[in-house]
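Progress narrative, Year 2. Work on Amidohydrolase from Aminithiophilus ramosus advanced from sequence curation to structure prediction during this period.
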Amino acid sequence: MRQAWINGKIYLERGSFCQALLVEDGVIVKTGSDEEIGALAGTSPVVDCRGKTLVPGLNDSHLHLSCFGASLMEVDLTRATSIDEIVSLCRDHMARHPERSREGMRSMGWNQDLFEKDRRLPDRDDLDRISTEIPIVLERVCGHICATNSKVLEILGIDEKTASPEGGTIERDRSGRPRGIFTENAVAWVEGTVPPLPMESRMELFEKAMDYAASCGLTSLQSNDVGAPNACGDFISIRRLYEEGRAKIRFRHQVTCQTAEEIERLVATERSLPAYGGDMLTFGPLKLFKDGSLGARTALMRQAYRDDPGNFGVEALSDSLQETLCRKAAQCGLQVITHVIGDRAIEKTLDIYEKIMQEGRKDLRHGLVHCQITDWALLERIARLGVVVFFQPIFLDYDMHIVEDRCGGELARTSYAFASLDALGAPIGYGTDAPVEDLNPFPNICEAVTRQDRSGHPQGGFHPQERVDVCTALDAYTAGSAYCEFMEHRKGRIREGYLADFTLLSEDIFSIAPERIRDIKALMTVVGGRTVHRDASF
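Result:
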């Protein structure tokens, strides 16, 4: 089927636009003027863009879609300003949704830095005020630290003698009593006390999350849902959505494995299934976790935290196991992407990547997810090795207020280095890490361009030398994210022969005031020539 799109400001690449395009069988077959495309369209359906800006389909390079979908059904703790408010919100949620909390409660989103007075972490005594009858696990917004009630400790038999798992911690008070606070690998352990959702419920939360993603202008998602801590996803429910035609947008798995044998098994079984043979659902990289988060002070640092002397963060994955997993992935032809936030985690991961690349294939595009705390030498090394960077500029909205306290002013100047890494030639894709941040791409682009928080602070931007222009940010969200998944020759551009994935915007992203970019809406979202979202106003 043919369809023409006319009367638009269609972004092709930096400095290049056209008016119209022609789609046939899900592929862009021609770009040009209204007259050219109109003549080719003949009697085919025509969509009038009404002068609006049309850009390539937006592609979130890293998120956790299952967790984001679950967050739409769970109690919202993101705006809680005290522990008392967390308790109150959870009690109210249990009263309004007894069927969801009959066997347990899980949520994510609190942030102690937003508490108005006492900024301590919630603990078992606090959560026991919600209930002592069901297991309750409440994760910080980053997902790298959680609070539980006493029921969780009872179920797992955790007491004063219980050792912390490798790559995680059981926090204790001065007497040695477990506080019901867990970090990193221990989070996944305690999460298992809350029963998983039934299959159909998991499929429904994925559908809701995909609907929301489409409404934000996203046409592709690269998501870590299987095997990851803090995730509710599985292969079967996601695969069924695509097999049954219920999924609207493209999806690439980022899969966490704990052993080399697990990697071999998944490559031999899951990856070979027919469901992964097209452009809609693909089996992607191995996703590893090297450290934690800056907000939780679990990111692995070379120097101790300035506001927590003696704490260097948490190494969630040992060097030996990380190297074993990376080597096995490379042998299986898998890309590896690794969660790294602290400078020591980045350094250690680059050491392993460089060693693995020297041993064999150099074309697997291994990547760094987040890559926040860096000095200039690390930036140069990343670019020299051609390691792909999966950035989340929106993290800076909050982190600009804590990074100097955590790491010092000198290191802050070379961190969140969006412009420097781009200038050095490192391949970069943008994403949100949802549900850590909202899936909406436009606040993310706005943050990269302005380096200001939602209130417009600071004037001129936080270390403004690292601001990027709109084309750079948009390209990172489209062509850059496509490169992250080896699809830069099929999507990420409005170009003849490319998949007909594009987004029509409510405002001209290239001409409006930069601070207004965060308010842009998707008027239409198109995947493979099919409209998957249309705003009621258009």
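The chain has a mean pLDDT of 96. The two ends are 23 Å apart (CA to CA).
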